[in-house]
Design goal:
mainly alpha; Arp2/3 complex 21 kDa subunit ARPC3; 6 helices; about 0% strand
Length: about 170
C-alpha cells in the first residue's frame, strides 16, 4: 500500500514539474521537484530505501527528459545514497537545516550535470553556468523545498493516521 501511495505522489510531482512549473522560472531556472523528493526520501525513509528511490526518480527523470541518459540517475542515486547514510547524523527539522541540505544537494546535482555534459559529450556550456545559473538553481530549491518537505510530512502523518498498519512499512 505504501508503494502505491509513493507512486501516486511520484506521478503527481512529475506531472506538476513538467507541465505547470515550466511557466514559473526565476532567472530561467525552475524548481526541481525530483531532486527535492530524492533528498526527502533519502533522509526520511528507513534503511537503504532512499538509495533505490533516488535511483528510480533519476531514471524516470532521464527517460522523460530526452537529454543525456544517466546524468539524473547518477546524481539522484548518489544524493539518495548520501542522505540515506547521513540521516542519523543530520538534524532534519526546521526550515534552515532542510534548506542547507537542499542547497548542498542542488549544487551537487548541478555539478554532476555540468561535468557530464562538458566531459562526456564535450558540450560547450559557458563557464558562467557555475556562477550564475547554478546558484540560482540551488537557492530556488533551498527556499521552496522545505515547503514541499513539510507538505509531504503532513500528508504522510494524515495517511498513517487513517491507515495505522502502514506505519511499520515506511
Amino acid at each position: 500500500m505504501i508503494i502505491l501511495i509513493f507512486i501516486i505522489v511520484f506521478i503527481l510531482l512529475f506531472a506538476l514539474q513538467t507541465s505547470l512549473l515550466s511557466h514559473f522560472s526565476v532567472g530561467g531556472v525552475t524548481l526541481d521537484l525530483a531532486l527535492i523528493l530524492s533528498v526527502y526520501c533519502g533522509v526520511l525513509l528507513r534503511g537503504d530505501r532512499g538509495i533505490w528511490v533516488g535511483f528510480s526518480i533519476g531514471l524516470v527523470q532521464d527517460c522523460l527528459s530526452g537529454s543525456l541518459l544517466g546524468v539524473n540517475t547518477l546524481s539522484k542515486s548518489i544524493i539518495g545514497f548520501t542522505f540515506s547514510r547521513l540521516k542519523d547524523k543530520l538534524m532534519v527539522e526546521g526550515f534552515i537545516p532542510i534548506s542547507v541540505i537542499l542547497l548542498a544537494a542542488s549544487f551537487f546535482d548541478g555539478l554532476v550535470y555540468y561535468l557530464a555534459l562538458t566531459t562526456l559529450l564535450k558540450a560547450q556550456i559557458p563557464f558562467s553556468f557555475l556562477f550564475n545559473t547554478l546558484p540560482v538553481y540551488a537557492m530556488v530549491n533551498a527556499l521552496v523545498g522545505p515547503i514541499l518537505f513539510f507538505f509531504l510530512n503532513w500528508s504522510a502523518k494524515r495517511i498513517l493516521r487513517k491507515f495505522p498498519l502502514l506505519e511499520g512499512t515506511s
